[in-house]
Write a structure and sequence with these properties.
By secondary structure, the chain is of the alpha/beta class. It has a domain at 27-277: TIM Barrel (Alpha-Beta Barrel), CATH 3.20.20.10. The protein is 31% helix and 23% strand. Helix 7 (172-183) packs across helix 9 (214-241). It binds pyridoxal-5'-phosphate.
């Protein structure tokens, strides 16, 4: 296992002569993550769909897909415009995992399917279907539709809802009724089911849950996992009863990869963040990705003994705002953000322990809380192998694209 100080020296050498700030991706670490995920998936009989929102670079997605081998199949995109962009880059079998209510998006999906690419979209309301059907009819094509299911933990008849708010479909018969509605359409194709257990994947094992200790969290996750497995099995049984085949059943994410792979109902899982290893995934029991993506800022000031200030800052992650959304000063080891200024804005002050020497011009390496969002701040990733920059990968931003 490489020490942090060795890693600092390696990245520092790789970046010699580069103008900071930059984003860098350690390709050896990415490959280690891809190999670890691939070995989990290999014996499961399932396939893996890459979650592109957690990468946001075509070159890197291609690298991961290629290295992952035959069990890595298809992409999970986050917007129809992104799916069209990815299809134009040569990718196929793209599932847009979030619905749209805009005719303009439906038109993109109709066009790209008519051109011969397979791009499906997850939906759950009749209004979504009406919009997709109209676009598909106009373009004389069919749009593949995946039905999105709420697999949150529900108790007390739904009054207690522990999980994210996505789809209103959470009961086997309602899911099957909706799928039959899709299957009966001339312009839509029933392409499968999506039931993402965000409440499990988004709950680290080793950190406390508010005032509750990690043990309470693990207990919650055990109960939630059993409930998701039961719900998916009920849905599968209902579809069997109606003789309606389920072409794919997608679930899981980096934070639930191991338990999702054990669920017999799923045919595939999604992983995105696990390849770049953002710091929100540092505290899981089953799979802890190697940190692989960083941004480097230059030290510009020494305001007082025990402090440095770096040029650049911000880069706070999305989601419920809290300290876990801040970037983490990573190298050299021991630095910390200041409570008063947090992740900074155009400059970031840091507290420096006595054993660390930093002078103006030195780089400091940070990790973002979320893998894909780092790409929205930089035009490219410097791809580092060992102690040198091997190549550069354009981010979506660098490719002139911006998807929401
Ligand atoms: C539908 C869906 N599947 C899977 C994931 C997991 O992605 P990741 O592996 O990047 O955590 C997400 C993330 O939000 C998602 O929305």
């Amino acid at each position: 296992m490489e020490t942090r100080s060795h890693r600092y020296d390696r990245y520092r050498k790789a970046l010699a002569g580069e103008a900071l700030p930059v984003a860098l991706v350690d390709l050896d670490a990415v490959d280690a993550n891809v190999d670890a995920v691939a070995s989990l998936v290999r014996d499961s009989g399932k396939t893996l769909r890459i979650g592109t929102k957690s990468v946001r670079s075509v070159d890197l997605v291609r690298h991961i897909l290629h290295r992952g081998g035959p069990s890595f199949r298809g992409l999970m995109a986050y917007a129809p415009a992104e799916a069209r962009f990815l299809a134009a880059q040569g990718f196929d079998d793209i599932l847009v995992a979030y619905p749209t209510a805009q005719p303009a998006d439906a038109r993109l999906l109709a066009e790209v399917n008519r051109e011969g690419k397979r791009v499906s979209i997850a939906v759950e309301e009749p209004i979504h279907l009406d919009i997709l059907e109209a676009a598909a009819a106009t373009h004389e094509t069919r749009i593949p539709v995946v039905v999105d299911i709420d697999v949150s933990l529900r108790r007390l008849g739904g009054r207690l809802h522990l999980g994210v708010r996505r789809s209103p479909l959470h009961e086997a018969r309602a899911v099957a009724d909706f799928a039959e509605r899709v299957a009966s359409s001339h312009h839509l194709e029933f392409a499968g089911l999506l039931g993402y257990e965000a409440h499990i994947a988004g709950t680290p094992d080793q950190t406390p849950l508010g005032p509750l200790p990690p043990g309470a969290k693990r207990a919650f996750k055990r109960i939630a996992c059993a409930a998701v497995t039961t719900l998916r099995a009920e849905i599968t049984a209902e579809f069997e009863r109606r003789r309606l085949p389920i072409p794919l059943f997608n679930g899981g994410g980096t934070g639930s990869a191991a338990s999702s792979l054990r669920d017999a109902s799923l045919t595939e899982i999604t992983v995105g963040s696990g390849f770049l290893g953002s710091h929100l995934f540092d505290h899981y029991d089953d799979f802890r990705p190697e940190p692989a993506a960083f941004f480097a800022l230059q030290v510009t000031r020494r305001p007082a003994p025990g402090f440095v200030t770096c040029q650049g800052g911000g880069l706070i992650a999305s989601g419920a705002a809290g300290p876990d959304r801040l970037p983490m000063p990573y190298l050299p080891e021991g630095l910390s953000l200041l409570d008063l200024e947090g992740a900074g804005e155009v400059q970031t002050p840091l507290a420096v322990p006595p054993h660390v020497n930093l002078a103006p011009g030195d780089p400091v390496f940070f990790r973002h809380a979320k893998s894909g969002e780092l790409a929205t701040f930089f035009r490219d990733y410097l791809l580092v192998r060992g102690d040198h920059v091997e190549s550069r990968a354009l981010t979506y931003r660098g490719a002139g694209e911006c998807f929401h």
